[in-house]
Specification:
The protein is built from three helices and eight strands. The protein is α+β, with helices and mostly antiparallel strands.
Length: about 210
């Protein structure tokens, strides 16, 4: 309609990251027992899991930081020429997810797990992260906002305009969480492996719409 004025806008998405020393280590500990019978595999897996859990508690870990999942018992099949598949034994396995909150003791805790479980323990991987991500995420959001604002200022200048009021702000999902550390396939010794915490990072993404003024 005549007399109506259309408001020009500019939409920009900015991203940012923030780093900090991690204060939480999450360890995935596998227990895998190969035995001749289902009963023996299952019983030994339970015994090994209990030994690992006991070692963790002896090092001050709380029950809430030790979680068991993925309990599985399966036959181990082998192929023989002319005969086909045969059951060579049975494998019982489970996974313990362990959260270590004292980073200085991480190497000692991992060594204790390996010693307690022996050859039936597998270290599936480690992740470094934060017990409380809010402060680090706030800095990542601020960096994302500054990235969006800088790009918007540049585009506005190229369009011979200037930025007006913010019309809307929307945070976009970004894959986030602890930064993975190198995977450890199998423990071969009970000597402590040094865990270097370094820095972990979180990312944020924000989409901002500004008015464009002449």
């Amino acid at each position: 309609m005549a007399g109506e004025s259309s408001t020009r806008t500019i939409t920009v998405t900015g991203t940012g990251t923030a780093e900090a020393p991690p204060d939480l280590l999450t360890v995935s500990v596998g227990v895998e027992c190969r035995r001749a019978s289902v009963g023996a595999a299952y019983a030994d897996a339970g015994t090994t899991s209990a030994a690992v859990s006991g070692a963790l508690r002896q090092h001050g870990l709380a029950d809430t930081d030790i979680r068991t999942s993925g309990l599985n018992v399966r036959p181990e099949l082998v192929w023989r020429d002319g005969e086909g598949q045969h059951v060579a034994g049975y494998v019982a396995s489970s996974v313990l997810t362990v959260r270590v909150r004292q980073m200085a003791s991480a190497s000692t805790v991992i060594a204790a797990v390996v010693e307690a479980g022996g050859d039936d323990v597998r270290l599936n991987g480690l992740e470094l992260g934060f017990a409380d991500e809010s402060a680090v995420m706030a800095r990542a959001r601020e960096a994302a906002w500054q990235d969006a604002a800088a790009a918007a200022e540049q585009f506005a200048s190229l369009a011979s305009a200037r930025l007006g009021a913010v019309v809307s702000v929307a945070e976009q999902p970004l894959p986030s969480g602890p930064i993975p550390v190198a995977r450890l396939e199998r423990a071969v010794a009970t000597d402590a492996i040094s865990v270097e915490a370094g820095h972990a990072s979180l990312g944020a993404s924000v989409t901002v719409v500004w008015e464009l003024q002449p």
